[in-house]
What does this fold into?
Amino acid sequence: MKNIPKRDIFKVPEGYFESLPEEILDRSKNNIRKINYSRWAAAAVLIFSAALFIYKFESSNSLIEANSIAVDDQVELLIDQGEWNVEDVLSLSEDPNAVLDQVMAEEWGSYDVSDSELEEELWSY
It folds into this structure.
C-alpha cells in the first residue's frame, strides 16, 4: 500500500452536477417513448395473431363442412349403385341403432299407427 501513489481518484468533471438533472430527464423521456412504441408493436402483433387464428379457424371449419358434404354424396352414390348395402353403411357408424332409429323415423314418421296396431300387424304373419 505504501507503493501506491496517493491521488484523488474521485474527480468529477467541471459542470457535471449542473447538467445531470437535464440528462436524466432526457434519458427517461427517450425510454418512455421506446416503451410506448414497444407497447404499440406488441398490441399490433397480438391483434394480427388473433385475426390470423380466427381466419384459419373459419377456413378449416368451412373445409370440414365441404368435405363432409362430399363424403355424404359419395356414400349415397355408392348405395345407389349397389356397391354398398345396409350392413356396410351400419358398420361405418359408431351407433348403428341410432342410425336405424333415424331411418325408421324418416320412413315411418308420416304414418299414424299406434303401437298396438303395429304389434297386431307384426304378429299376424
In short: The longest helix spans residues 16-80. Helices lie at 16-80, 86-92, 96-108, 115-123. The two ends are 123 Å apart (CA to CA).
